Amino acid sequence: MGSKQTAIVQIIRSEIENGSMKPGQKLASIREQSQRFACSLNTIIHVYQELENQHLIYSRPRSGYFVVAREEISVSSHPARIDFASAAPDADRMPYEDFRHSMNKAIDLYKDRLFDYSDVQGLLSLRKEIVKLLQNLQIFTNEEQVFITSGAQQALHILNGMPFPNGKTNILIEQPTYWGMLNSLDVQKKSVIGIERGPNGLDWESLERHFQSNNIKFFYTVPRFHNPLGTSLSARDKKRLVQLAKTYDVYIVEDDYLADLEDNSKADPLYAFEGSSHVIYVRSLSKVMLPGLRVAAVIVPPSFIPLFRYHKHAVDLSTSVLSQGALEIYLKSGMYIHHIMKMRELYKERIQWLTEACRIHLPPDTLYAAPTGGIFASLQLPVWLDSGDFSKRLELRGIDVMPVDRQYHPSFPKRNLLRISIMRADKQEITQGIRIIAEELKITAKPRAFFRTNWINL
């Protein structure tokens, strides 16, 4: 753009942003603007085109140009806080510009299908791209076994409600576990059995007993970067789990929501182990990118394809074509991998900073799990502290954390845990936040030493 054109764009943009021009208000005609700015009609045409590209105005045929409605941005009067609670990425880390290109391209590519129903299983072209992506995780499947859902939450809800080929009815879940799974099970009034997921993994004796005797339809697990504990199962444990599932005809629903953040090439998902015929793999494709995109992939055994299709169609005629098309282009162009590599390095650094801050600042009798990757760590409070009350103390000091109470089934005994997320906390905030947590622990400490077990760097 020439300097004259750029200056006019800035003037009109400022009038829109400062409220001089209201949403829906008609702009002056091209001729009127050319007289106002003493320029050619062609210059104003280019100015309006640029403002359209910036999504500030839009045109109505034979009516003129109008201001686009926009969300009012309010400046918070609250002081800055340290966010250890959120599981959504930093707003300034989201790939808005790259994804906007993908979205615009998808509109051009799928414009004849955007407002129609698509295949309930998802766009075939996107499913093929996902098959390629998953090969990097040692997951070898085909597009016929892949379903696209409106987020991993929808996939879990469908699986909870549908019958399984083994004819069993009880659902076994780790305790604690992802709160969204608990909500879905509660809404559907499913029969739920809990098994403890501790710092050292699963209680294998109890697990085998449940598989053998308790009519288990499927076992829901988060093997990698557990939510809320942050820990991961070892390769040995994954292999053992898959073998037990096959032996006792129990299916495993593997929630691999943070696979993108794994930098250990040998940390395979359960689906990669022998016996994957009993593993249903659920993978978010927007968790560390744009959570609001709501796109996930589910890999089901061949025998599940008609059944899952039927039940998905019952709750969702089709997943958004625009979201699917944009993600397909984002994958094909290499932008997805490029963004994930940056996020992987960022969050790995933050987890390392968190581990170091815990080592330096927390009282020596404090029990915590500080993994080598992912976004969560967990801290066990002394028995005399209530996690809800302690989180309120921290809230008064500008620290937001999440007690793990809501991530337990009501019938299961709860451990006194806090979940700490590093998704929206930088190095300085992590250090300051852990220092404040340490101060509060010391203030509330009992005179006797707290019994310590080895729950560090799992």
TrEMBL record:
Database matches in CDD domains: AAT_like (cd00609), WHTH_GntR (cd07377)
Pfam families hit by this protein: Aminotran_1_2, GntR
Keyword presence, Transcription: yes
Cofactors that this protein relies on: pyridoxal 5'-phosphate
Signal peptide (UniProt feature, chain positions): none
Record key words, sorted: Aminotransferase, DNA-binding, Pyridoxal phosphate, Transcription, Transcription regulation, Transferase
One GO molecular-function entry: DNA binding
PANTHER family: HTH-TYPE TRANSCRIPTIONAL REGULATORY PROTEIN GABR
Protein name in UniProt: PLP-dependent aminotransferase family protein
Organism for this UniProt entry: Paenibacillus sedimenti
